[in-house]
Design a protein that fits this description.
Elements lengths: L11 E6 L5 H13 L5 E5 L4 H11 L6 E5 L3 H11 L3 E5 L16 H18 L2 E7 L11 H5 L2 E6 L6 E9 L7 E7 L2 E4 L3 H14 L3
Length: 215
């Protein structure tokens, strides 16, 4: 709904938010749903080990035969994995950890982020691979690489919420393939993020509790 109808082959989507807000958990759940539809999914992790992602997938019940996980940060080696697997859906977690070895700048720098994102865009368009890249925001709320990613990708999704609260909101601030008027609402529970289909009812219930039973 937030994407305007679903994941589009060949699209490059950025999902951004504060570290620890749940971007990886949400994306892993999406990966599992796509893999269960007999689509091949490749999840590249530069933040955690493959074992850690597997443990999270166990906890979230996000396991699927077609969901493959690879721990890698070198862009050239990542392209080899993509070529070998030929996925329908690709995830890069996160873009700040990926680097090109022929560049002198460090991973997470503006130049590395720009070049790696541009390379992923070329792969997505050439091979028709729907690609999600996860990106962290800086302390002042901007995308790392001063907004350079927003100009490269097709769609920008922000995942927001207080880490100490249960509710998370997913919203689009840019979408070349649809509107940006929809939001997705999720509730963080022990088993992971749960979709809240009736956001209006939830907000009304919260409002009633605050007005009728103020603390």
């Amino acid at each position: 709904r937030v994407l305007g109808g679903g994941v589009i082959p060949g699209s490059l989507v950025l999902i951004a938010g504060d570290p620890g807000i749940g971007k990886s958990s949400l994306t892993l759940a999406v990966c599992a749903n796509i893999a269960r539809d007999q689509k091949k999914v490749l999840y590249i992790t530069g933040e955690e080990s493959a074992r850690q992602i597997r443990m999270r997938a166990d906890r979230l019940k996000a396991l699927a035969d077609e969901l493959l996980i690879c721990a890698e940060t070198n862009f050239e080696r990542i392209t080899v994995h993509i070529e070998n697997v030929q996925p329908d859906f690709l995830v890069i977690d996160s873009i700040q950890t990926i680097y090109k070895a022929d560049m002198e700048s460090a991973p997470g720098s503006v130049s590395q982020i720009r070049e790696c994102a541009a390379g992923l865009m070329r792969i997505a368009k050439a091979d028709g691979i729907a690609t999600f890249i996860i990106g962290h925001v800086t302390k002042d709320g901007n995308l790392a690489g001063p907004r350079v990613l927003e100009h490269i990708v097709d769609t920008v999704l922000f995942f927001e919420g207080e880490r100490t609260a249960d509710l998370r909101v997913l919203r689009a601030i840019k979408n070349r393939f649809g509107a940006t008027s929809e939001i997705g609402l999720f509730e963080m529970r022990d088993v992971g993020l749960i979709d809240v289909p009736d956001a209006s009812k939830l907000f009304i219930d919260i409002w009633k509790r605050q007005v009728l039973h103020p603390s």
